[in-house]
Amino acid sequence: MHWPADYHMHTPLCRHAVGEPVEYAAQAVKLGLTEIGFTDHSPMRRDDFDNWRMRSDQLDEYVAKVRRAQKEFPALTIKLGLEVDYLPGHEPWIRELAARHPWDYFIGSVHYISDSWDVDNPEKLSHWKDRDPFEVWSVYFERLAMAASSRLFEIIGHADLPKKFGFIPQRDCTSMFQQFLDAAKASDVALELNTAGLRKDCKEIYPSPAILQLAHRTGVPITFGSDAHAPGEVGMDLLRAIELARRTGYSQTCRFTQRQRRLVTL
Questions:
Q1: How far is the C-alpha of 63 from the C-alpha of 7, rounded, in Å?
Q2: What values do phi and psi take at 164, rounded to 5?
Q3: Which of 12, 49, 78, 92 is in the most buried spot, having the most CB atoms within 10 Å?
Q4: What is the mean pLDDT of each run of 10 residues along the chain (266 residues)?
Q5: Structural domains in the chain?
């Protein structure tokens, strides 16, 4: 089978992953993947912003780890990327990061609906207790639309992340989904099919089939990612994501080199 690229992988520098990039690359080769990309959590301007990302002084070390994997596995195409958090007002910092190395792509992700609440953090699960899921999702998708409109990213990651713990609004969310997808289309940003949701409480790929259908109808292209935090998670459930994409009507996926996109047959 001709696999799509697995464009979402982490390293121990983020403090919640295991295995070096060379181990992830070895697993990719074992599975028959031909292209992967590393996208560890980028540093923030303040190293004490949270405890699940690399420090700013580790960015060069991260790049060196990926370069080593590229050197040791020349037959495997390995891209250099970052998963970059989008928060309003942080755009200058993201531009600084973009200028530091010749990146192949940035995944723009929203984890925070405020500077203090990352909605997918199990240590802050109690924050959901007194919050209306629809309100949380509304803020989240507003920020996701801002991330897409910023033109700072090639891909938007795990688009319905707030469903991770099963907190899903009972009200119709179509308008907020469409607002985000219209922004993605206008900015020519791709949408990631992230299989990590299948390993979480929600037991569903990010994004949901309903969002993916809207994305296809809107003309938003896609990428694939296992969101691997260990070598054994490389390529995990990619076949299910491919089947979902095809069922939705997608026949192409994106690949990136030095932040330039090309479409390939799925």
A1: 16
A2: -45, -45
A3: 78
A4: 93 98 98 98 97 98 98 98 98 98 98 96 95 98 98 98 97 98 98 98 98 98 98 98 98 98 96
A5: 12-265 (3.20.20.140)
